[in-house]
Amino acid sequence: MHVVEILRKLVGFPSVVGTSNGDIVGWIDAHLRSFGVEAHILPGPEGDRANLFATIGPSDRPGYILSGHMDVVPAHETSWRTDPFELRAEGERLYGRGTSDMKGFLAAVLAAVPALTARPLTRPVHLALSYDEEAGCRGVPHLLARLPDLCAPPLGAVIGEPSGMRAILAHKGKAAARITVKGRSGHSSRPDLGLNAVHAMADVLNAAIATARNLAEGPFDDAFEPSYSSLQAGTIGGGQAVNIIPDLCMLEVEARAISGIDPISLLARLREAAEALRARGFAVEWEILSAYPALSLPPTAALAGLLRELTGKAPLAAVSYGTEAGLYQRAGVDAIICGPGDIARAHKPDEFILASELAACQAMVEALAARCRA
Fold first, then answer.
1. Cα separation of 288 and 134, whole Å?
2. Please, where are the H alpha helices in the chain?
3. Neighbour count for residue 78 (Cβ, 10 Å)
4. What is this structure's pTM?
């Protein structure tokens, strides 16, 4: 199948984050088996979604992982011009949810399977496809836990997030948390008889604001924009009516950390403020929604040199968005980002990828295959 036709099939599966992905996993499995490639379907603890791992070449020798996620963000925006789950071609542009982020990469890799299987590889190329990346990289840790049973220690992993086919060496880490404060309701004329959860949450919100200000003062890493770690309160809600003492308030926050800093550690001041509310009679719940580490690959790493040769472009030092690459690195696998498309087109109506970008990615994978025969 041509890469565009494969992309058409993949976009047609509404594999929205947090939902069952059996259909897209089944189709990819069948596609690989049609070329004699056996895939391992690795169900996650949710029971209705799975990772997929396949090896082309000798699994007992070190090789390279091509990694991507099968899920996409929802497409509820009313400004889509056509069905977001039907690929639409307009010249070079191919529109549809997930075209850039990141079914374009998956399509290019799957289109390269005939070249990967045409002649035996002396080093393997692995396909590692995950679920629920868009919910904070929830699926790939289960895949990484199985990696020692599936293959020899890899030489490196290419994470195919949209980068304009330019390799990226580093990204920030992220942690997100939900804080829920429960007080006691009552009539607003008797605040002395209630516990106002919204007022109490102000302590946590002030801690978030203070932390954000402090982070802007450093430490710094000039590879990133902004060059410092950051924190923000993203959502807040509580209360029923102006004359009812609110007994519930919820706050969601996220922190993004430069390399060398644990993103969860940036939430410590907020958690301390939340826990202190217990002494005033409030019930407090603290939930980590997602967390993944930063990526930091040295420019002198062999994987960086390989991607420079495969793409013909010098690697970019860093980006501020996050990927599964940091989790691969924490698992002991060198990782780098490189894929077709543009992150600026992702998560918005009329997301698109260029046919030339798909072709460039397929050519890169086929060039990697040639390297793995040498």
1. 15
2. 3-11, 22-33, 104-111, 113-118, 140-150, 197-215, 268-276, 302-311, 325-330, 355-371
3. 5
4. 0.92
Q: Give me 88's structure tokens.
A: 């639409």
Amino acid at 50: A
Name the residue with tokens 């698992």: 331
Which residue, chain included where needed, has tokens 């984050």? Answer: 17
Task: Return the percentage of the chain with pLDDT > 70, whole number.
Answer: 100
**Contact between 30 and 130 (Cβ < 8 Å):** no
Instruction: Tell me the two tokens of residue 5.
Output: 């036709």
Report the alpha-carbon distance of residue 145 to residue 16 in Å, rounded: 24
Q: What is the mean pLDDT of residues 208-215?
A: 98
Q: Which residues of 108-125 are buried (b: 16+ CB within 10 A; e: fewer)?
A: bbbbbbebbbeeebebbb
DSSP one-letter string for 322-353: --THHHHHHTT--EEE--SS-GGGTTSTT-EE
